Amino acid sequence: MDFGFVKVAAAVPEVRVADCVFNAGRIVSLMLRAAERGAALVAFPELSLTGYTCGDLFGQQTLAEEARRALALVVERTRECGAAGVVGMPLAVGHSLCNAAVVFGGGRVLGVVPKSWVPGYGEFYEGRWFVSGREMAEREVVLCGQRVPFGTDLLFGEGDLRFGVEVCEDLWVPVPPSSHEALGGAVLLVNISASDELAGKHAYLRGLVRQQSARTLSAYLYVSAGWGESTTDLVFAGNVLAAENGTMLCESERFSLHEQLLVTEVDAGRLLELRRRTNTFGGAERTFREVEVALRRPDYTGAEGEDFGRRVDPLPFVPSGPEREERCTEVFSIQVLGLARRLVHTKARSAVVGISGGLDSTLALLVTVAAFDRLGWDRKGVVGVTMPGFGTTGRTYRNALGLMEALGVTVREIPIGEACTLHFRDIGLDPSDRGVTYENAQARERTQILMDVANLTGGLVVGTGDLSELALGWATYNGDQMSMYGVNAGVPKTLVRHLVEWAAGREDERVRALLLDVVDTPVSPELIPPSDDGTVVQRTEELVGPYELHDFFLYHFLRFGFRPAKIFFLARKAFAGRYDAETIRGWMRTFFRRFFAQQFKRSAMPDGPKVGSVGLSPRGDWRMPSDASAEAWIRETDTM
Length: 640
Fold this sequence. Notes:
Rossmann fold; six-stranded mixed beta sheet; elongated
């Protein structure tokens, strides 16, 4: 099954400056290795057939002829490998010499793209030998006995899978040629380069590659010359960078003394879907000639994909690495600012939060306290209400009270047992019937209490439900589904847990201990009485499935519109060794069934801040009829 992936490679060969035959041999060897690993396209550095640092040798007829012969050798010896290639060489066209990227495959030269921006500053003297492709009028060139397309207006590929090529400096200018190529339909952008190393330059380069892939909604493959080019005053480190929509997929070891070959999967299907959803993307200002190139696609039927080398993040909503602190601060600040604005606008004198001792209410309490602090208001205006019921355990009860006291908010304890028992009698429910009415009545009683306390104190009710619960409909309609402002509505459960853990590191010892215990507490609505020893018997993830799986499904379903088969394939890769195929399939079925059936709850959800790229607000990201059928999604899930 074609999931929209294509394997691409970039190689840094061993180079002998001006020894074209040797260089061609290394290029052939690396290209054959890449093709064996399934690569459909292999990119080599700028002027890699001759070497970038040839200097005035570029004016020698011998070098020019050797380069052409070397190209013919590369094209012929890779004829049957099944991959296309991009290699750099000096090329005389008419009365000019250009710095060219040659695209070839299947024993043919497919097209030639000249470098658009030729640097002549600092250590660069390219203007001494080469002219800009923007100044060249030729549209064809004879190469390897063929007349082939030539120019800066070429795109390669077939159907929706097309790639564009630019050369080194082209990336560094205000409007790179690849920007136009992307608008013209290229989903993959290739840059063959020979950029020398300077202190601090690599970080800037990484930023350029990531940003260009993000602003063009593309995959960007960059390859630069290696240490064999190092001569006189310049050192070349052999960079390979592959980025997709702002995320770095892989990068090579710098300053290596050995050849480099990196192969990675590009998710062209994902990029195309993002472009279709972004109505500001498009409107190409240039017309491109399209050169047909068949790029083979890997077949991952049956979710086997043993050679699938791309890492799949099992927690796509959760930040990691050096970005963790900044991302958590941003998310929390968005929640805080949104609530602060609503408090000021409504002239609220208080904010009422139901505190259960669980993850969601804990995060909502932290956000509310921070909002009051930002506004310079007394924390006593935060009214925390704990409402122990039939299923409340000693652990969550103690944590609820402890957090409210430690944070200095107003504490109210209003048990709901007696009120619910009376309500059961009024509606004729046998209390031993522990069905949905038994559970929902408790949730609605708690919501009624919060609303009335808010009226009494001149405030508003801060909702605690999170994005994952909204997706699954794991909330009581007109119960905990309702509030006056839902601060967690844009935060999935996996991120809620992470944010509470992150917040623990910013608090004093007493609050930190309480927060970490909340993180370790099993997720439960606590609506069914615990066992005799006080153990929770109602565990949410045993009933509706692991939140890490549901958040994974939610991200790929909503963010990219992936079909069940692709989500299943990715989930098997992300959770290999943790969940087997049947477990993933079973909970995926649950996800789709609940997601479609519970839309009516999302259609009536209160306001809440959007914090990430996935949201379910009917006023913003997700508009779906409540009566839509899930059958097509469930049918594909069942047949995988």
